[in-house]
Write a structure and sequence with these properties.
single chain; 7-stranded mixed β-sheet; two-stranded parallel ribbon; 9 strands; transmembrane helix
Length: 498
């Protein structure tokens, strides 16, 4: 609901979201007059005295802008002091960029809210809000939003004629090195005030070199926004390359391990990378691809705004703000040429983002395939284990069968000898008298056949009973197997094509 509130009330509400940790910051003053080369001046600020001194000198010239001719003629001392540093032609329009590169706070660990730690005291930042016309929405953009953002709006300040274009940019806070940017371009003075948040030493050096060596035809207000997009592209490109390198190593490790298992090298296969780590990197790569897509959409928004700026502000026939009519032909042509260059650069960046997105998609598919192969190999190893268990079970069954056969043989021998033993024991009982009445030893009784007959009969009955029982059991097992086979065949027939 910030769009319903004035900028002053926004700052009173949102400034509490920020923390102040004074540190070294770099100030770049870039000026261009007509077709002359860019002039760049660099300052390093820390103490409040240094900031106050810079405010007192910087605001003198930046306030003149398109009215530089009258301003310098009215204040000869200022004209003399400024022309000693930068020889100027008072008949040419002056455009300028005041850019503050705020140092990145050292929080000691990854902190998505690190941009909310500003390298100024609160009093200095309040002065910057006034001098640089920093819109209050930037506080919410850098402190709460953790996704990338590009916001542009036209804004009137103290008077209707003091029209400005405000840009708020932010890169994603999902990775280290996120940046924020607030830009205010004043139409009347051709002055761009900008503050970049979260700059480390490398980023500061890159921005300084880019602006100092620039040969742009004009200081278009979107120059810093496109430069911000290039910095984000460089960061995301490094992240993609690093993450791809890590995932390729894991894919190679998984492939080598799978190859060893394919050769059935069961002695000591090399361990594949942790699947948990692979899945973690796979998820991070997916988030990185989403981040690339999100920032690509923001670059499309930037291109649309460049067309809007060129069609509405640089076209005298459609300019409702009187901006184009106040520009000199050289300045107007320079802004138009710079607009074309920035659009071409954004197109190239979008093409590079498409390539990075394709790389992410390919490596994500590769990791998914490698992980699937790893799971397949795990299943294959489980199958080998089950086969070993089955083999061992078969061996146990074979041993059990042999033991059973031995027990059957023992039982058979027992059944053969047991009846004869039983009969012999029976006849040796006291109920039979095998001696004569006078103690003489009797010979074999003629009834010996009775022993043989009884023994053979009982043995035959015993073996016959056992044989019949075994055959009946075998026929029952055969019948059960036949019924099962018929049911399986019928089931397969029902499942077959009709």
């Amino acid at each position: 609901m910030d769009w319903l509130r004035s900028d002053d009330s926004l700052w009173e509400k949102n400034i509490s979201m920020l923390d102040f940790m004074p540190a070294n910051s770099t100030v770049l003053e870039v000026t261009k007059q007509g077709k002359a080369e860019l002039r760049t001046q660099k300052y390093t600020m820390l103490s409040e005295e240094e900031w106050q001194a810079w405010f007192n000198t910087a605001s003198v010239i930046s306030a003149a802008g398109l009215d530089l001719t009258n301003y310098l003629l009215e204040f000869p001392s200022t004209r003399y002091a400024y022309s000693n540093q930068y020889p100027l032609d008072v008949n040419q329009q002056l455009s300028s960029v005041d850019l503050i590169l705020g140092a990145r706070a050292d929080t000691g660990e990854f902190d998505p809210g690190v941009l909310s730690y500003l390298p100024f005291s609160e009093s200095i930042f309040r002065r910057l809000i006034k001098e640089f016309k920093i819109h209050g929405t930037i506080a919410r953009t850098i402190s709460r939003n953790t996704s990338c953002a590009f916001i542009r709006k036209f804004h009137s300040w103290d008077s209707p004629i003091e029209r400005s274009i405000v840009y708020n940019c932010r890169s994603s806070a999902s990775w280290r090195g996120d940046l924020g940017l607030s830009v205010t371009f004043t139409l009347r003075t051709l002055t761009t005030h900008a503050l970049m948040y979260g700059c480390d030493a490398e980023t500061t050096e890159v921005i300084t070199k880019r602006l100092s060596s620039s040969d742009l035809s004009s200081l278009h207000p979107m120059v810093l926004v496109v430069l911000f997009a290039e910095l984000e592209r460089n960061k995301l490109d490094r992240l993609v390359r690093d993450k791809i390198g890590q995932l390729i190593q894991q894919i190679i490790g998984i492939s080598d391990n799978n190859y060893a298992l394919t050769l059935d090298d069961r002695s000591s296969p090399s361990l594949s990378p942790s699947l948990a780590m692979s899945i973690k990197d796979w998820i991070e790569m997916g988030e990185l691809r989403n981040g690339l897509k999100a920032f690509k959409r923001k670059m499309h928004d930037m291109m649309e705004h460049i067309d809007e700026f060129q069609g509405e502000l640089l076209n005298p026939e459609r300019d409702n703000h009187g901006f184009a009519t106040r520009l000199s032909p050289d300045t107007l042509l320079g802004l138009q040429e710079t607009s074309v260059k920035m659009k071409e650069r954004l197109k190239h960046l979008i093409d590079e983002f498409d390539e990075l997105i394709e790389k992410c998609a390919n490596i994500i598919n590769g990791v998914g395939l490698a992980s699937q192969l790893e799971w397949n190999q795990i299943g294959r190893r489980d199958t080998f284990t089950n086969l070993e268990i089955a083999r061992n079970g078969l061996k146990v069954a074979q041993h059990t069968r042999r033991d059973s056969e031995l027990m059957k043989s023992i039982a058979l021998l027992t059944m053969v000898f047991l009846p004869a033993t039983f009969v012999a024991t029976l006849f040796s009982m006291g109920i039979f008298e095998w001696k004569g009445s006078y103690g003489e030893v009797l010979s074999v009784s003629p009834y010996i056949w009775l022993y043989v007959a009884v023994t053979v009969a009982i043995t035959s009955v015993t073996l016959g009973t056992w044989y019949l029982w075994a055959m009946r059991r075998r026929r029952r097992a055969t019948s059960d197997n036949s019924n099962k086979s018929k049911r399986i065949s019928k089931h397969r027939h029902n499942l077959g094509p009709h």
